[in-house]
Amino acid sequence: MINTMECAVDAQSLISISLMKIHNSRTQRGGIKLHKNLLVSYVLRNARQVYIKEKYAEIYRMQQYEEVMTVCNEIQQLNPLELDAEDADDEEQARAACCGEDVSLCGSACHRDAAHTRTASALPGCSHLEYDGKEPEPSFYRSCCMEASPVSECDQFSANGRAHCNKTTVLDLDTHVVTTVENGYLHQDCCCDALQCGQGAQSPAKKRKVEFACCVSDVEELSDFTAARKRVKREDCSYTHPDYTDTSNISNLISIFGSGFSGLLSRQTDLEQICSKQVLASLGAWTRAIVAF
Amino acid sequence: MLYCWFKYLSRFCFFPADIISTVEFNHTGELLATGDKGGRVVIFQQEIENKSQPQFRSEYNVYSTFQSHEPEFDYLKSLEIEEKINKIRWLPQKNAAQFLLSTNDKTIKLWKISERDKRPEGYNLKEEDGRYKDPNTITSLRVPVLIPMDLMVEASPRRVFANAHTYHINSISVNSDNETYLSADDLRINLWHLEITDRSFNIVDIKPANMEELTEVITAAEFHPHQCNTFVYSSSKGTIRLCDMRISALCDKHSKLFEEPEDPSNRSFFSEIISSISDVKFSHNGRYMMTRDYLSVKVWDLNMESRPVETYQVHEYLRSKLCSLYENDCIFDKFECCWNGNDSVVMTGSYNNFFRMFDRGQRRDVTLEASRENSKPMQVLKPRKVCAGGKRKKDEISVDSLDFNKKILHTAWHPQDNIIAVATTNNLYIFQDKVN
């Protein structure tokens, strides 16, 4: 167990630093260093564990577990599109990436500040935890996409203020399998610049659904670039209030790296399993991007 | 042994842009090769013993310089391949020429270094300047003769071993059979024959079927000095695996696993980083091996897998500074380690241009500094001490004063004598022990 004397604030800064390192490594000469990035991902995992523990402890102190469940149930009733009418406060707190955590944390992580009780109304991330027969929607918050080219997407992002990563292509160096992920917009959670992306939000007042591409196919044996492996995903993506805070960035980023290299997870609760498989799938391209370089 | 403090012998200053990336003595110690970030190899040669000045008998001078690797671009993967020399390994000498292997991230090259001190003169068909004569003007024949010339050292690439590594090569090691060698990258180890460049055998592959399940990478590998079937490789998780190539063609399953359980009281955010092994070296007698992780050097008995037989703390005072060292990337520095000729002393580098020696038998250690202030001829190095906390004594240096940009990652010990080569960022220092 990590010495929890290192508080959540240190964990947050470590997460930011680690993500910056990973981003910087993509543009450094000689390609991505697999060893270094693996070690950085360990630090990310450790910092995430501490951060989540601190968050959990904080929320548990503030709220009852049952209240959170009730709130989650209420949210299931809502059509996500109708949340456009929610006020800005809810939007701000709706971005917390709760997927990958257990239910009470799921609810609580959506609260930037535990005192904002209304945040419970914008918790799409909890929806998939319901077992009422509805098809679960993996409505957690998508992390950034990666470009296969050495050009940093931050350059793209800052260049035009609106990052349109239409397609992310990553190449497994050994099997030469190309994985393509298509999306419409770059979420501000892009690890390329966790702290700045929030300012570049495109439509801060509206939630959007972002559809990710396509189908799964087995392409293990192909050695040319025509093979592609795709996954079916539907994810929701909401955009930030202009006063996007670092802590909300951190929460989002924590979920993004909720699995990281999945082998790093030593234990997972059942609830985490459900969430993390989906997060895991989305992180495949990320991992392979590291490999590809 | 450590009572005979080392004295300064010579210093070679590389250009500021040339960061030394590897240092290696050959098997006799007469030659010392360095590789740098610019892809160059510089070889130093020990001077012939000067009877009139015995104290200078070990001086090294530049012998040969050549460009080993150039920067390349992999168009297929849109990757630039650095020309930095990661490792140099000498082959045992078989004839008048010397051979060494040098590698960057992707390609290994076999270089022949030979001397030429004679040149032919008196060709029948060629003028002295090389122009060809008209055969009709030749009226007599003569036999060309070899005449002495100034010594010229030539380096020529004899073999290029390419396209066998997807990931970055971190180690090469020549087998004791003098026919094969291994090369290791992050996930695989390949076995080559020195004569064959278009084929290599993969002997270790730790790449998981799903890269998302990756938990460790290979960090170093070395053949046993006497047993040609045995090699070890270290991992980023702090484990060392010993493999026997007689057991199976693919050595994914180790014969021995050397691992020390982690001390749970030392757990931190950076536990995984500081336990990653940066170097592994067999002792000359083949009974032990030494590993270097971020804070310590460990000596392992090959017959005991459960824990090392000796552990030496290199700079334990850095344990409380890991967060800062993570921020400035110093925590990723890969320090090497080396044995002396009779395996009684081990040496490794640290920060502030300090390097440390541990006498295994006497259980004593010393910290020395490679700096220009100590660069007066024959000057004996003064032991240094770092003050970890509390009142700083005179001549001690406090942890906060350490310069983390000045690091000694590469050191080498002469195979027979007590001569050491210590590389700072772009200076190579050679020290020898005090001759009584």
From TrEMBL, chain A:
Which organism does this record belong to? Sparus aurata (Gilthead sea bream)
The identity of this protein, by name, is Immediate early response 5-like
Family recorded in the similarity comment: Belongs to the IER family.
Pfam families in the record: IER
InterPro entries in UniProt: IER
From TrEMBL, chain B:
- Swiss-Prot/TrEMBL keywords: Repeat, WD repeat
Signal sequence region: none
> Which InterPro entries does the protein's record reference?
PP2A_PR55, PP2A_PR55_CS, WD40/YVTN_repeat-like_dom_sf, WD40_repeat_dom_sf, WD40_rpt
Query: For this UniProt entry, what's an example GO CC term?
Result: protein phosphatase type 2A complex
* Entry-linked SMART domains: WD40
Q: Name one GO molecular function term.
A: protein phosphatase regulator activity
Organism superkingdom: Eukaryota
Family, similarity comment? Belongs to the phosphatase 2A regulatory subunit B family.
Summary of subunit composition and partner proteins:
PP2A consists of a common heterodimeric core enzyme, composed of a 36 kDa catalytic subunit (subunit C) and a 65 kDa constant regulatory subunit (PR65 or subunit A), that associates with a variety of regulatory subunits.
Recorded protein name is Serine/threonine-protein phosphatase 2A 55 kDa regulatory subunit B
What is the originating organism of this protein?
Sparus aurata
Gene it is expressed from: ppp2r2ab
